[in-house]
Every structure is written in C-alpha cells, then in structure tokens.
Amino acid sequence: MKKILGIGNALVDVMTPITDDKLLEEFSLPKGSMQLVDEKRSNLIKSETVNFKRTFSPGGSAANTIHGLAMLGAGTGFIGSIGKDETGDIFEAEMKRAGVKTFLSLRDSITGTAIALITRDKERTFATHLGAAVELDAKDLDPDFFNGFDIFYLEGYLINNLPLVESACKIAREKNMTIALDLSSYNVVEAYLNDFKKIVGNYVDVIFANEDEARVFTGLAPEEAVKKLSEYCSISVVKIGPAGSWLKKGEELIKVDSMPVRCLDTTGAGDLYASGFLYAYANDLDLEKCGILGSMLAGNVIEVVGAKIKEDKWPVIKKYVSILTRDKSNEEN
After folding, report:
1. Which one has a higher pLDDT value, 169 or 312?
2. CA distance 289 to 278
3. Phi-psi region at 239: left, alpha or beta (left = phi > 0; alpha = psi -120 to 50)
4. pLDDT tens digits, one per residue of 68-120
5. Which residues contact 219 (CB under 8 A, 6 or more apart)?
6. What pTM value is reported for the model?
7. Distance CA 70, CA 317 (A)
8. What one-character DSSP code corresponds to residue 302?
9. CB count, 10 Å around CB of 265?
10. Rounded to 10 degrees, what is the CA torsion of 120, 121, 122, 124?
C-alpha cells in the first residue's frame, strides 16, 4: 500500500454551534467561508461565544485528512508548525496517537485555532487565527521528510504562501510522488485563482473541489466542472454535498451517491472524503470505489460535531474497507 504525506496548517478546532446567523453578520463572516482573523479578533469571537457549548479538537484541513488515513491504517506523515504551548502539545499527541509520523516545526508564537461557527442548517463558517501555523516556511522543508512516502497531499489554504507550496511540490515531484490538492474554500480560490491554476497546471495529479470551489475555478456547474478540471490533472473530483460527487479519470466519468445519514455538522466532510478516496487510491482500487469510500467517511463525520469520526465507528468502517480491498484481490485472482 502506498504511504501518504500531508502538509497544512496545524490548528485546533473550536466547534461552536450557534442559534442563528446574526452572529456571523456581527463578526462580518460570510456564511460558509473561511476567514483569516488576527489574534485580537479571534479572542473577541471566542469571548462572544463563550456561553455556547464548545468542543476542542486538533484540526486543520490536511491534518484531518491525514488523521483519517492513519485511523484507517495507512502509513502517514504530516508537516506543519505549532507553538511551544499546551495547545500545540495536544495537536502533536493526537496525531501521534493515531499513528501519524509528525514533522513539526516549533515556534514561539501560539498554536493556531479555527473557530467553527455552526448554524442550525449545519453549515459551518470558520474564523481562523493561524498563529504558529502561518510561520511554516519553504526553508523548513527537509527533503528527507518526503522519503518513504508515495503520495503528497496539500490543503489549498497554504496558497497564500506560494513559495512554500511550490517548494513542497518540487520536492515531491523530484521524489516521483503523486501530488493531490484540495482547493479548501471558495473564497480562498477567488483570492488566489491565478496561483491555484499555476500550481494545478504544473504539479497536481489529483484535485478535490466542492461545488462552490469548482465553480470559482472553472465557472461551470459540477458535472461540467469536473470535466474541465480533468484537463489539468489525471483525476478530478467535485463534491456536491448530499447529492454525492462527480469523478473523472481519463475517459471515465462517474457519479457516486452520498450516504443517507443524519447530518449534525458538515465540518470535516471534505477532509474525510479525501481520507477515504486516498486510502482507496493508495490501495489501487478503481475510481468508483475511491468515491464510495470517500462518501462513506464523509457520511460518518457529518453525524458528529467536529472533524473527527468517533473511535467506536472505526472498527465497522475498517470492516467495510476490508471487504472493498478483498473484492479487488478476488477480481485479480
């Protein structure tokens, strides 16, 4: 099985269900977006929501994906930057507990947090203070980190540091790794569209986008967008929430349905979709099975608040995965 190395913002998620959309307006946060905020504004939002029931969990988009892959049993690694504080210790300990090999730079700044404001319709809006995460730099990338890994996975949130992204992709390409990218957020794609097109066009083999991100990148609706994205890379995936996902590889175009579940919170749905997809891809399963496993993990994570699937669910998930991989072995025999 292929091993996967991820890079992204090492954050701690602060999951905060709120009663209505007024708070989003007060904080000038476009619903469904990810907005970067400074430490002062982050603290203000935390203080204004202190009476809501909040949960804290190590997160960050690529970290969530890599954590999910590790829980499935994949060989994984993660590159990031944390503060020399208790929050950073929690992040590192949780990743290692899942079996992730960590390559973390330590900073004097505080570890970043992502406040997820979850409205009644289960949509989440992020106010993210990157803290130490944003200090990850191209000079922190040791080519030896990449040794032994076959797939390199990046989150689109890193695009604001183009030299970092380019350096990481160049090292991965030199190591003959497959490069996968998630576009991460429609407003980030809007702000850095040309940079994204440069990276995707020059380096990316597998691209993940949700409906909004795909529309910003291509100007097209999902089915046509997945075709357009496939012109840039080998495999394109466009996720369309409850309607499932479109996938394209070469001349193969398929649609995979989502799981029928009770949605509590969409946080982490895209991240865990990537976990399932990449696990299947790393096991050389066909495109449809990649999409099915992606949908399965996305369906499991939206049944809980936060971006982590409950530990008691993993044995059932692994049993299903073993059936998928066994079917492939039977087909080959």
Report:
1. 169
2. 11
3. beta
4. 999 999 999 999 999 999 889 989 999 999 999 999 999 999 999 989 898 88
5. none
6. 0.88
7. 13
8. T
9. 20
10. -90
Instruction: Please report where in the chains the tokens 């183009």 appear, as a residue.
Output: 162
Rounded to whole angstroms, the Cα distance separating 333 from 330 reads: 5
Its CATH architecture, for the domain 4-332, is 3-Layer(aba) Sandwich (3.40)
CA dist 221 and 61 (Å) reads 24
Cα–Cα separations (whole angstroms), residue 28 to 77, 128, 158, 265, 273: 36, 13, 23, 21, 29
Q: Estimate to the nearest angstrom the gap between the alpha carbon of 277 and the chain centroid.
A: 12
Q: Which pLDDT does position 330 carry in this prediction? A: 55
Q: How far apart are CA 331 and CA 333, in angstroms?
A: 5
Going across the sheet that includes 11-17, the strands are 34-36, 124-131, 111-118, 11-17, 55-59
Torsion sign, CA atoms 240, 243, 247, 251: negative
Distances (CA, A) of 224 to 42, 60, 192, 228: 38, 29, 22, 6
Q: What is the mean pLDDT of residues 291-318?
A: 86
The domain segmentation of the chain, as residue ranges, is: 4-332
* Alpha-carbon span 7 to 78, nearest angstrom: 6
Our measurement of the distance from residue 83's CA atom to the centroid of its chain's CA atoms, rounded to an integer in Å, reads: 21
Helices 61-72 & 269-282 angle (0-180, nearest 10): 50
Residue that the structure tokens 């030199």 belong to: 174
